[in-house]
Each structure stands twice: as structure tokens, then as C-alpha cells.
């Protein structure tokens, strides 16, 4: 533990607290708290989406996976990025035109039943908790490694920080922290990539050439080609399905579309996000290859068996303590910003959908709503800190891919049908959410993540379902469930669908026609 | 605030035309990028097509992955362009409705 790291960390934490202080003065209404007053511009929100998306799994996880497994690590970058086309082409604008604070708002724009809202909120909360756990477990490991303090204390520290951002600053503070963090993350990644390229005299072919020579007993194929990790093809396909369709169902990403004033700005924020995220994922090649070339495999694995410390270690090798502290502080800020965003989306599902709309039937003063939102944020924080302390030994990537899978199976089918299918009805929406949620969770319990004959998972037995990620089955199940449910339920009037169509296509609102 | 007559707007030929145009643009492209993405793990998992080297030490798998990045950026740019046209038509529909031309 050295002084540079401590100073760098304190500077970061201090700076983000200053942001929160100024944001808290601007956070007065419920709309400020949930959506930063809907006043972000396209590039600001694009940057914030990138900040939300480029979590520890991307920065630490993918860099490490490429360093250890070559192409197999990069594979995931591809799925994470193309997912934004689903967001842009199918979800972003209708969502912005129909919703106010949450995904459930959008589905409720067509079906007024409280039940639909409650189930939509339930699936959002499930996704948020899995995602949250992954981030907190990752944060705990990072802080534990850097400062040499116990894991549980690390998690509590991160938890307290994130709670401060959310409680006092709401969405405004969280958005700004995400923007600042996205810029710093890009700067750090660019610096490391530049230094790696310098090392290869800017000859990319030479870099690939050196990677060709990487061998290790556990590599089942060549480092430069798919398959080094020895995953079954079906497993890879299933994972890509989860990533591709999951992003468009992640509550904390979708919630970002309510922080802009209209669908046009929502669209341009996706454009900005796609460029930033895409460039970042290209650079993960340099992070990973650099680590593979300049560090030994043993070094990377010794620091963390999954390779999560490859990027910070590479930074230390290339730029000494200063760059290493910068990267570590950025990684810390990354996790913090992402969990803050998650707390907000979990809290809005509780406070806005379940408490506000289902229990209080929408009859609340703005003050009561704020109180409910803050109480919910505090509860989500405390609950996830407690869960994270017990989830220490869970694989971070597994938890994240699970969140993507539930999002793709329970949320996306219902979102798509709500926008595009005339015959879709209340029964279909409820059946779809339940099917997606139950099938994905059940298959995970029967999968190698939970059942493993060697005893490395929860239950020591042969897994009943062979795939790590069940998206290949559960996503179609969600679509089929919603489809069958629709035909079991009774046909509904098409008036509401017409309204949804007109709103989602034209973006018309009462303010357009009031005189 | 006045209430919006969605039924009336939905019945306008201009609105129906815009809706059809949007869907005709979005649907084929969505199917294309979904297939282009999903076929990638299928090709790498079940064939050796992408393991040969394309340029120097870089195999076709990297080229395919890189092309998917280019695809994303291209399709985003195309969407931004087309969406601007749709915006204009949508604004026109809102204007006509507001000015009572659909009576």
C-alpha cells in the first residue's frame, strides 16, 4: 500500500462528493431525483449511459479475459456492443415516448392493471439485485486487494459511498459521477493502449504475431482463435443471446432514457454511447494483449484467478505507481457509479411502481414520493450490502450474465410486444414476465453454476441443464409465454394500442396540443 | 390541457404511411443485425471457417468481429439519418392535428 494510491483515491472520492453536494442543491422534486429533471443533453446522457454500462465486468473483466484467453475474451465485447442496435432500433424511442420514470410505466401505458406494473417492477428488482451483487462483490475484491482491508469492510465502505450519492444527489449526482467517470475511464484506457502500442512500435501485426506464441497448458486452442477457453459452442451462442437481448431490458440502462427531454435526444444519446462504448471495446484488445505480453500468466492469475487485476497490473508495469493508482481509482469510481445507478433503478421500481402506483394508487404528494424514493434507495442499499457480504465467493461474471439473461427473458419480450403487437393483452404481459423470470431462474438452478459434481458450486451433483447461461432457452420461452398468455386471455380493445402507436411514433404529448 | 384524440390521428393516411415506412425500415435491418451477430458464435463454434489467417497474423475471426463493430457504427449512422426524416413527418402530423386540419 503506498501513498500515491491513497492520495489518488481521496482526490477521486473528494471530487465525486463535491459533485454530489452541488447536485443535491438541484435535487428538489421527484422528477429531479429519478431522472435529473429530464434535462440532460444527448452527449451528456450518452456519456452517462457509457458510464453506466462500462462496469467492472467490462474494464477489469474483459481486459483480464483477453489477457488469459485471447479471442474468447474479446468475444463478449462484440455481444455487449451490438446489443445497442437492439436498444436504438427497437426500444429507445418508444420507451422515451411512453414512459415517465420506469420500464413498468411504459408497459402500464398500454395495460392499466396494477398487476402488470407489480410484475414488471418485480422483474426489474430481480435484475437489479443480481447486477448489484456482481458489482459489489467486484468492488469488495478490488478494495481488499489494493488497501489490504477485509472484504466485508470493503463492501460496507463502497456501500456507504454509493448510498450518499443516491440519497443526497439522486439521479443528477449519479449522472454527473457517471459522466466524469466515463471520461476518466476512456483517458486511462487510451493512455494504457498508447503505451502498449508504443511497446510494439505501433505495429499491430507484430503485436498479433507475439500473441501467436502464447501457450499454456489450460489453453485448449490457439490464443488468437475462438475456443481457447474450451467452452461448448452452445454455451457461447447462449451467452451472446443473453448479451444481445439483455441490454435492452436492463432497468438501469433503460432508466437513462427518462433523463432526456424527448425521443430525439434519447436517440442521439444512444448514438454517443455506441461510439464511446465501441471505441472502448476495441481498446480492450490492447489492454488484454498488453497484459499478456508484458506480464506473465502466473502474475495475472496470482493476483486474481479470473484475471480481474490484469488491467491495474499492466498500468503499474507501464506507468508505475502513478498510472496504477489512476487506474485503480477509476475502477473504484466505475463500480461506485454503476452501483449508484442500480440503486436508483431498484428504488424507483419499489417506490414509484409498487408503493406509489400499486399501494397508494398514484395518490401521493411530491414530498411523500421523495420520502418513499429515498427510503427505498436506503433499503436497496442495505439489502444489497448484506447480500454482497455473503456472496463473496460468487463468480462476478456469472452474476452479471444472469442479470442480462433475466432482462432478456422477462423484460424484452413484453417491451417488444407492447410496442409492436396489436393483439397483445394484459394476460400476455403478465404471463410473459412470469415465464421469462421463472424459466431463467429455474434453469440457472439446474445449471453447472449451481450443480457441479466436483463440489465447487452449491450442490455436488451432475448438472441437469448443461448451459451456464440459459438465455438460448429462456428468451424464446419469454416470447412464447407472452404469446400463449395473450391467446388465453380475452381480447382487449385496440384503443389503448392505437394510443401507444401514436405516442411512440409521433412522440405527441398533451403539451404539444394544449393552448 | 386538452385531451388528445389518438383514434383520429391513428386513422389519418399520413400516420399510417409513416408507421409503415418506419416498420419497413426497422424490421429488415433488425433481422439482419441479429442474424449477423448470432451467426458469429455459430461459425466459430461449429466450423473452422474463421480460424485461417486473413492478413499477416490476424485471423478471419478478428476480421468478422471488427466488421461487426463497423456494422454497429454504420447502422447507427443510417438510423440517425432516417429518423430525422421520420421526425419531420411526425412533426407535420402533430402540427396538422394541433391546427385542427384533421377535423
From TrEMBL, chain A:
Pfam families: SSF (PF00474). The keyword Membrane applies. InterPro entries: Na/Glc_symporter_sf, Na/solute_symporter, Na/solute_symporter_CS, Sodium:Solute_Symporter. Keywords: Cell membrane, Ion transport, Membrane, Sodium, Symport, Transmembrane, Transmembrane helix, Transport. It is a multi-pass membrane protein. Its main location: membrane. CDD domains: SLC5sbd_u4. PROSITE patterns: NA_SOLUT_SYMP_2, NA_SOLUT_SYMP_3. This is Cation acetate symporter. It is found in: Cell membrane. Belongs to the sodium:solute symporter (SSF) (TC 2.A.21) family. The chain crosses the membrane at residues 6-24, 53-71, 77-95, 116-143, 149-170, 182-202, 237-258, 270-295, 322-350, 371-390, 396-420, 432-451, 471-489.
UniProtKB/TrEMBL annotation, chain B:
The keyword Chloroplast does not apply. The chain crosses the membrane at residues 25-46, 58-79. Pfam families: DUF485. The keyword Nucleotide-binding does not apply. Keywords: Membrane, Transmembrane, Transmembrane helix. InterPro entries: DUF485, MFS_trans_sf. This is DUF485 domain-containing protein. It comes from Salinicoccus bachuensis.
Amino acid at each position: 500500500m503506498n501513498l500515491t494510491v491513497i492520495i489518488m483515491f481521496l482526490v477521486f472520492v473528494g471530487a465525486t462528493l463535491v459533485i454530489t453536494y452541488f447536485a443535491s442543491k438541484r435535487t428538489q422534486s421527484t422528477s429531479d431525483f429519478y431522472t435529473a429533471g429530464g434535462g440532460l443533453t444527448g452527449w451528456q446522457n450518452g456519456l452517462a449511459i457509457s458510464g453506466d454500462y462500462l462496469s467492472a465486468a467490462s474494464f477489469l473483466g474483459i481486459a483480464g479475459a483477453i489477457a488469459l484467453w485471447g479471442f474468447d475474451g474479446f468475444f463478449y465485447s462484440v455481444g455487449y456492443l451490438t446489443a445497442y442496435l437492439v436498444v436504438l432500433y427497437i426500444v429507445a424511442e418508444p420507451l422515451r415516448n411512453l414512459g415517465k420514470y420506469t420500464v413498468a410505466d411504459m408497459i402500464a401505458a398500454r395495460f392499466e392493471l396494477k398487476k402488470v406494473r407489480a410484475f414488471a417492477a418485480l422483474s426489474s428488482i430481480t435484475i437489479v439485485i443480481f447486477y448489484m451483487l456482481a458489482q459489489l462483490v467486484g468492488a469488495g475484491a478490488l478494495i481488499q486487494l489494493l488497501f489490504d482491508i477485509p472484504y466485508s469492510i470493503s463492501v460496507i465502505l463502497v456501500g456507504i459511498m454509493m448510498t450518499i450519492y443516491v440519497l443526497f444527489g439522486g439521479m443528477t449526482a449519479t449522472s454527473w459521477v457517471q459522466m466524469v467517470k466515463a471520461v476518466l475511464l476512456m483517458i486511462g484506457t487510451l493512455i494504457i493502449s498508447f503505451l502498449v502500442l508504443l511497446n510494439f512500435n505501433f505495429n499491430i501485426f507484430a503485436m498479433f504475431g507475439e500473441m501467436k506464441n502464447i501457450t499454456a497448458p489450460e489453453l485448449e486452442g490457439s490464443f488468437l482463435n475462438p475456443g481457447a477457453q474450451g467452452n461448448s459452442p452452445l454455451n457461447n451462442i447462449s451467452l451472446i443471446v443473453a448479451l444481445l437481448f439483455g441490454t435492452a431490458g436492463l432497468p438501469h440502462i433503460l432508466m437513462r432514457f427518462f433523463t432526456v427531454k424527448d425521443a430525439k435526444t434519447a436517440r442521439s444519446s444512444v448514438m454517443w454511447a455506441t461510439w464511446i462504448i465501441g471505441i472502448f471495446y476495441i481498446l480492450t484488445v490492447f489492454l488484454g494483449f498488453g497484459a499478456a505480453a508484458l506480464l506473465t500468466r502466473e502474475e495475472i492469475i496470482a493476483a486474481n484467478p479470473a484475471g480481474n487485476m490484469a488491467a491495474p497490473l499492466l498500468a503499474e508495469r507501464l506507468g508505475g505507481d502513478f498510472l496504477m493508482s489512476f487506474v485503480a481509482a477509476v475502477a473504484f469510481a466505475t463500480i461506485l457509479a454503476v452501483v449508484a445507478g442500480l440503486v436508483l433503478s431498484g428504488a424507483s421500481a419499489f417506490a414509484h411502481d409498487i408503493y406509489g402506483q400499486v399501494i397508494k394508487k398514484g395518490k401521493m404528494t411530491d414530498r411523500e414520493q421523495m420520502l418513499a424514493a429515498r427510503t427505498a434507495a436506503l433499503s436497496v442499499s442495505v439489502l444489497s450490502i448484506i447480500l454482497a457480504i455473503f456472496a463473496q465467493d460468487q463468480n462476478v461474471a456469472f452474476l452479471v450474465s444472469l442479470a442480462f439473461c433475466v432482462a432478456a427473458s422477462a423484460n424484452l419480450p413484453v417491451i417488444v410486444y407492447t410496442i409492436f403487437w396489436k393483439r397483445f393483452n394484459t394476460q400476455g404481459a403478465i404471463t410473459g414476465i412470469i415465464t421469462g423470470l421463472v424459466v431463467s431462474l429455474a434453469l440457472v438452478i439446474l445449471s453447472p453454476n449451481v450443480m457441479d459434481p466436483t463440489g465447487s458450486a452449491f450442490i455436488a451433483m451432475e448438472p441437469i441443464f448443461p448451459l451456464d447461461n440459459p438465455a438460448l432457452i429462456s428468451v424464446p420461452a419469454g416470447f412464447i409465454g407472452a404469446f400463449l398468455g395473450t391467446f388465453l386471455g380475452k381480447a382487449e380493445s385496440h384503443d389503448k394500442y392505437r394510443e401507444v402507436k401514436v405516442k411512440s411514433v409521433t412522440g405527441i404529448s398533451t403539451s404539444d396540443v394544449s393552448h | 390541457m386538452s385531451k388528445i384524440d389518438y383514434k383520429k390521428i391513428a386513422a389519418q393516411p399520413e400516420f399510417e404511411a409513416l408507421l409503415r415506412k418506419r416498420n419497413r425500415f426497422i424490421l429488415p435491418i433488425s433481422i439482419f443485425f441479429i442474424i449477423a451477430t448470432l451467426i458469429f458464435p455459430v461459425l466459430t463454434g461449429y466450423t473452422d471457417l474463421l480460424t485461417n489467417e486473413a492478413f499477416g497474423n490476424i485471423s478471419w475471426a478478428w476480421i468478422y468481429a471488427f466488421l461487426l463493430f463497423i456494422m454497429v457504427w454504420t447502422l447507427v449512422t443510417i438510423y440517425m439519418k432516417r429518423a430525422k426524416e421520420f421526425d419531420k413527418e411526425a412533426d407535420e402530423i402533430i402540427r396538422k392535428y394541433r391546427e385542427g386540419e384533421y377535423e
